[in-house]
C-alpha cells in the first residue's frame, strides 16, 4: 500500500514524501545471509589465521576492472571548460584513490575500474574544491554506483571561483604594517556545534595590503596577528618617557609649570598612542590619579611591557566582538581593513603544588582566554611547571583567563606505596588492563581564573587534586554470539564532548578485569561520553540454523548502550564535577544492529540522487550535538541509500534539496523537517527497506 504524506512547503524540503515499500526482514535471517556469515575477523587462534588468509586472498585480487567514468569540469559561472583541474576518485575497491588532470576541454576519464561505489571531487588553485553532484561547495556529493563493465558519463562538474577577502593593515600610527599575518576563519558546523576552521592566510606587503583567495561561500572571522618583534626600543622609550614625566611631576606637582612640562611630554609622546592619551589625561587635571596608575604599571626595573594584540575585523581585540564577513561565490570583498592596537602586556606566574606536597614531573599549565570563539587557534599558552612547581606566562594581553594544570602519574603497583610520575616511567602510560603491558595511570588536575589588566599577576596558586573515579561493568547481550573469552581485551574509554574538548587532555583508558569490571581513575571535571569496543565473538552451539552464524564462526559486537550516573551517555553527556564519582556504569554490547535502506524516486518514479536524506528522532530530547540518532546520507547515482546502526526508536525521514554539513544537528532545522517528514519505527535488530517517492515538484 502506498501512503502519501502532504507536507508544508519549504525551500529545501521535498513537497511530498510517498512510501513505496516498507518491508521488515528478520534480523536473524538477514544478519549473515548464509552459513559462516561475513566472518568479521578478530579474536585469537583460528580466527586470526582466517583473517590472515582472507587478507592474502584479497591482496591477490587486482584492483582493476572493466568499468569507466568520463566527465568534464566547467566553471561555475560561465560554464566554460576548466583545464588542468585535478579530479580525484576514491572508493573502497581502489584501496585508496586515483587522480587525473583535465585536458584543454576540461575533460577527464578513469578506466579499468572495478564495480563499486565511488566518490569524486575536482580542485584547482583559485577555485573551490567541489564534490561530484554537490549542490554547493562544502556540501556532500553524490556517490557513483558503477557496475562491472559499465561506461558512465557523469554530469559536468561546475567548479565555482573562490571568493576573495582583501584589505589593508595599519599600525597604531596609521602607517602600513608589512609582514603581518592575516587569517580568514570560516564558521562551520562540526559535531553539531559551530566552530571556526582556518580557510586561508596571507601576509601583508610593503603597502600593508593582504589578499586571501579561494574562499568558499560562507561566514568568516578575519583576524590580523601582528608580530611582536622589535618592540624593545619602543618599550625602553615608553619607560624613559614615563620616568621623565614622573620625575617632573614629583618636582612640580602643584604648579602650572609642572603641568606645562607634562603637556609638552604628552605632545611628543601622543601621536594617537595610549601613552599620549595617558599623559594628556595627567596634564588635563587628573595628575595624582594617573600618576598612581603609572607607578603601578612599572615593574621593579622601571620597564613597561607592551605588545600588539590580535585584532578582529572591524577593529576589536575581543573575539566575541568580531563582525562576520559574508563571502558569496566568486565575490571579491574589499575594505576588510585593520588598525593594530598596542596594549600593555603582563606576566602571569604562580606556583603549582601536588595533592601530597610533591609536584609530579612533566606537569603542564595552560592559560586560556575566556573571551574566545570555538576553534579559534593560537588563543592559549602552555608551559611546564619547574621542579618547585613554578610557572610563568609572558606577553599576556588584558582579559579574563582560565588557568588549568594537568599532571599524569602512574598508580602504585602491588607491593609498593609510591606514585611514580608517568614522565619518569617512559611512554605515556595508560593502555589496556589485565595484559601486563602497561601500568594504569591517573590524571591530577587544578583550575583557577585570573584577570589581567596590564599589571603583572604573580600570585596564582594551583593545588593539584585527584580526579574522580568511574567504575562499572561490561555486559554482552547476544542471540548469535558468545561473549569474548578474555574480557580484559575489552576497551573502555571516556571521551570529552563539546567545545571544551581536551581542556585537561585525554583520560587514560579503563582497566577491565577478567570478570568485566572496569575502573577509570583521575577524571577531571568536564562533559563526557563513555564508550567501548569489544573483540569479535564466536557463534555458540545451536545457532547455525536458518542462515544464522554457524557455531565456531566469528562476528562483531556493537556498542548498544552506555549508562552512567543514570544517564545514557551515548545520547546525553555525562557531566562530571569535583567530588562526583560514578559507581554504577554499565556498558552493553549486542550482536544485533539496525539497517534502513531503500530507493529514492522522483515524481515520475525514476531513481534520483538530487536530494539528501535526513533521518532523525521524533523526540526533540535527542536533538543534541553529535547525536548518534541523527544521520544524513546522499543516495548513489542508482538512487539507493543505506543507514546503519541507529538505536531502536521512532524516527522522521525527510528528503532535502540542500543541507550544510552538520546542519542536521541544529534543532531549528530539525523543527522545520519534522512537519514535512514521514515516520518510521526501528526495533532492535530491524533490517527495513523504505523506498521514498517524491510527489510533485519543488516549491
What does this entry show, briefly?
The protein contains 7 helices and 50 strands.
Please characterize this protein's 3D structure.
This protein is mainly β. It folds into six domains: 3-29 and 593-694, Immunoglobulins (Immunoglobulin-like, Sandwich), CATH 2.60.40.10; 67-159, Sandwich (Immunoglobulin-like); 163-226 and 310-343, Carboxypeptidase-like, regulatory domain (Immunoglobulin-like); 232-308, no CATH class; 345-466, Sandwich (Immunoglobulin-like), CATH 2.60.40; 468-590, Sandwich (Immunoglobulin-like). The strands form twelve sheets. Strands 24, 25, 27, 28, 29 and 31 form a six-stranded antiparallel sheet that branches. The chain has a six-stranded mixed sheet with strand order 35-36-32-43-40-41, with no helix packed on it. Helix 3 packs antiparallel against helix 4 (256-269), helix 4 runs antiparallel to helix 5 (274-283) and helix 5 (274-283) packs antiparallel against helix 6 (287-297). The longest helix has 21 residues, at 232-252. The radius of gyration is 32 Å and the shape is flat.
Largest β sheet strand count, sense and barrel closure: 6 strands, antiparallel
Shape: flat
Strand content range:
35-45%
How many helices in DSSP terms?
7
Class from helix and strand fractions: mainly beta
Spans of at least 5 consecutive residues whose pLDDT stays below 50 are 1-11, 15-62, 232-236, 255-276, 297-302, 422-437
Averaging pLDDT over every residue, what do you get?
78
SS elements, strand count? 50
Look at the structure and give the CATH class of the largest domain. Mainly Beta
Q: Based on the coordinates given, report the CATH architecture of the largest domain.
A: Sandwich
Question: What is the CATH topology of the largest domain?
Answer: Immunoglobulin-like
Classify the helix fraction into a percent range: 10-25%
The name of the CATH superfamily of the largest domain reads Immunoglobulins
Question: How many angstroms separate the termini?
Answer: 26 Å
Total individual domains? 6
What is the alpha-carbon Rg in Å? 32 Å
Amino acid at each position: 500500500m502506498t501512503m502519501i504524506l502532504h507536507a508544508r512547503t519549504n525551500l529545501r524540503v521535498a513537497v511530498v514524501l510517498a512510501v513505496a515499500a516498507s518491508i521488515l526482514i528478520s534480523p536473524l535471517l538477514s544478519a549473515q545471509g548464509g552459513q559462516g556469515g561475513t566472518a568479521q575477523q578478530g579474536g585469537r587462534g583460528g580466527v586470526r589465521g582466517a583473517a590472515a588468509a582472507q587478507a592474502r586472498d584479497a591482496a591477490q585480487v587486482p584492483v582493476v576492472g572493466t568499468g569507466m567514468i568520463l566527465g568534464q569540469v566547467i566553471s561555475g559561472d560561465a560554464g566554460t571548460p576548466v583545464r588542468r583541474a585535478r579530479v580525484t576518485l576514491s572508493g573502497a575497491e581502489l584501496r585508496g584513490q586515483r587522480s587525473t588532470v583535465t585536458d584543454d576541454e576540461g575533460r577527464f576519464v578513469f578506466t579499468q575500474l572495478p564495480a563499486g561505489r565511488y566518490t569524486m571531487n575536482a580542485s584547482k588553485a583559485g577555485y573551490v574544491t567541489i564534490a561530484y553532484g554537490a549542490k554547493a561547495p562544502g556540501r556532500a556529493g553524490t556517490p557513483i554506483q558503477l557496475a562491472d563493465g559499465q561506461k558512465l558519463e557523469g554530469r559536468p562538474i561546475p567548479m565555482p571561483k573562490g571568493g576573495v577577502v582583501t584589505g589593508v593593515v595599519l599600525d597604531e600610527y596609521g602607517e602600513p604594517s608589512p609582514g603581518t599575518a592575516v587569517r580568514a576563519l570560516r564558521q562551520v558546523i562540526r559535531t553539531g556545534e559551530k566552530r571556526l576552521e582556518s580557510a586561508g592566510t596571507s601576509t601583508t606587503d610593503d603597502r600593508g595590503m593582504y589578499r586571501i583567495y579561494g574562499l568558499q561561500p560562507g561566514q568568516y572571522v578575519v583576524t590580523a596577528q601582528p608580530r611582536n618583534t622589535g618592540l624593545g626600543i619602543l618599550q625602553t622609550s615608553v619607560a624613559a618617557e614615563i620616568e621623565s614625566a614622573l620625575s617632573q611631576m614629583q618636582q612640580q606637582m602643584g604648579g602650572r609649570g609642572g603641568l606645562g612640562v607634562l603637556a609638552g611630554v604628552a605632545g611628543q609622546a601622543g601621536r594617537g598612542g595610549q601613552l599620549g592619551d595617558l599623559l594628556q589625561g595627567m596634564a588635563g587635571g587628573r595628575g595624582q590619579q594617573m600618576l598612581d596608575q603609572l607607578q603601578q604599571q612599572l615593574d621593579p626595573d622601571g620597564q613597561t611591557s607592551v605588545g600588539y594584540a590580535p585584532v578582529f575585523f572591524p577593529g576589536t581585540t575581543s573575539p566575541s566582538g568580531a563582525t562576520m564577513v559574508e563571502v558569496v561565490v566568486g565575490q571579491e570583498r574589499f575594505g576588510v581593513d585593520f588598525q593594530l592596537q598596542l596594549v600593555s602586556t603582563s606576566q602571569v606566574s604562580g606556583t603549582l603544588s601536588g595533592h601530597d606536597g610533591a609536584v609530579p614531573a612533566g606537569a603542564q599549565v595552560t592559560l586560556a582566554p575566556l573571551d574566545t570563539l570555538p576553534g579559534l587557534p593560537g588563543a592559549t599558552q602552555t608551559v611546564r611547571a619547574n621542579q618547585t612547581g613554578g610557572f610563568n606566562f609572558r606577553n599576556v594581553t588584558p582579559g579574563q583567563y582560565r588557568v588549568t594544570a594537568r599532571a599524569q602519574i602512574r598508580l602504585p603497583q602491588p607491593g609498593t606505596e609510591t606514585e611514580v610520575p608517568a614522565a619518569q616511567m617512559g611512554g605515556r602510560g595508560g593502555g589496556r588492563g589485565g595484559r601486563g603491558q602497561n601500568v594504569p595511570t591517573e590524571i591530577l588536575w587544578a583550575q583557577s581564573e585570573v584577570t589581567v589588566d596590564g599589571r603583572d599577576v604573580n600570585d596564582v596558586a594551583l593545588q593539584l587534586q585527584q580526579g574522580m573515579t568511574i567504575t562499572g561493568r561490561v555486559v554482552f547481550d547476544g542471540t548469535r554470539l558468545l561473549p569474548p573469552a578474555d574480557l580484559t581485551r575489552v576497551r573502555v574509554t571516556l571521551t570529552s564532548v563539546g567545545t571544551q574538548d581536551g581542556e585537561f587532555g585525554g583520560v587514560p583508558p579503563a582497566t577491565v578485569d577478567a570478570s568485566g569490571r572496569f575502573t577509570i581513575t583521575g577524571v577531571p571535571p568536564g562533559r563526557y561520553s563513555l564508550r567501548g569496543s569489544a573483540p569479535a565473538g564466536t557463534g555458540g552451539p545451536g545457532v547455525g540454523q536458518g542462515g544464522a552464524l554457524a557455531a565456531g564462526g566469528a562476528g562483531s559486537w556493537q556498542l548498544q548502550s552506555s549508562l552512567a550516573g543514570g544517564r545514557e551517555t551515548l545520547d546525553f553527556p555525562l557531566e562530571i564535577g569535583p567530588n562526583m564519582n560514578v559507581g554504577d556504569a554499565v556498558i552493553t554490547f549486542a550482536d544485533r544492529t539496525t539497517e534502513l535502506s531503500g530507493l529514492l524516486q522522483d515524481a515520475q518514479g525514476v531513481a534520483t540522487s538530487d536530494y539528501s536524506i535526513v533521518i532523525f528522532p521524533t523526540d526533540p530530547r535527542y536533538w543534541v550535538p553529535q547525536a548518534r540518532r541523527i544521520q544524513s546520507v546522499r543516495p548513489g547515482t542508482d538512487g539507493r541509500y543505506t543507514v546503519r546502526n541507529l538505536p531502536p526508536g521512532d524516527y522522521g525521514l525527510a528528503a532535502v534539496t540542500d543541507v550544510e554539513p552538520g546542519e542536521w544537528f541544529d534543532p531549528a532545522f530539525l523543527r522545520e523537517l519534522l512537519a514535512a517528514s514521514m515516520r518510521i519505527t526501528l526495533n532492535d535488530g530491524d533490517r527495513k527497506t523504505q523506498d521514498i517517492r517524491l510527489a510533485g515538484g519543488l516549491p
